[in-house]
Every structure is written in C-alpha cells, then in structure tokens.
Amino acid sequence: MSQARSLEPWRWLGIPMVQVLAATILFGIPLRVWGLRLPEPIFPLAVVFAWAVIRPSILAPFLVLLMGLFLDLYWGGAKGLWALCLLIAYGVVLAARPIMAGQSRTILWAWYALVVATAMMAGYLFVMLDAKSQPDPLAVLWQYLATVVLYPFAHRLIDMFEDADVRFR
User: Fold this and answer.
1) pLDDT-based confidence at residue 92 (cuts at 50, 70, 90)
2) What fold does the segment set 9-164 form as a domain?
C-alpha cells in the first residue's frame, strides 16, 4: 500500500510536467547508437492519463494545452496538433474515469494503451489533413509502442496521489 501525498498543484501537476518536458528534450537529442536513433515517445501522454485518473482539476487542461504547444514548437509541427491530441486524450480519460476506478494495474495499462491509440490516431488524421500526405505508419507504430511502454511512470504518479483527495473516489 502506498502513502498518499498532499495534492498541492506544484507536486502533482508542476513537477511531472517539468519532468516529461525535460525527457522530451533529452530524447530529442540527435544521438545515434549503432546507427539507431532514440525513440520519440510522447512523454506528456503518461502524465495526461495520470492527471485525469487522479482527479478532475481546473489547472490540468491548461497545462495539457501548454505541453501540447511545447511539443508542437519543439518538433516543428503544426501549431495546435499535439495540444489537441493531448486534450482529446485527457477528455477520454475523464469520461471513462468512473469505469477505471478500482481497476487493476493491467486493466489500467490496457486503458492507457487505448487512450494512447486514440491520441495517436487523432494526430495521424490531423497530420494527413494538414500535410495532404500520409505519415509513415511504421514510424507511428514505433512511436505508439514507445509511448505505451511509459505506463509504469503514469501508474507511479497515480499511486502517489490517488488517495490524497477522498472527494473524487
């Protein structure tokens, strides 16, 4: 059983946001090992999922928007693409939150994979509409798999703060 921490916004929103943005910058370094590049998972999806599972918040959607805009600027994509995809993921998790309550780690991982698939599919479709060409499906699949592997980080955040506010159980 984990020890719940207090829900001060800087602890459950601010610190994880800085961590995932730093991880994004770190994995964005053009480093090649044996000719292979580092994967480019969507680190913010892990905290977006965790924030919506932990509790509804008025600050979280604004921070989700900021993280998405940061991803757009950092990767040079269409402005608003990742912001919209992350907000869609956050909304899906908020809508399904009552169903997810009390589920096992494995079931939550499956939900996380579904939410990541939803966000990635939305991004895929939006890029097709914007660029009028199809992104490489294999690259999107690898990015999806690299992002799904991040679930333990989301689960750790959920474990740390899930029981801190009994009003939203």
Assistant:
1) very high
2) Arp2/3 complex 21 kDa subunit ARPC3 (1.10.1760)
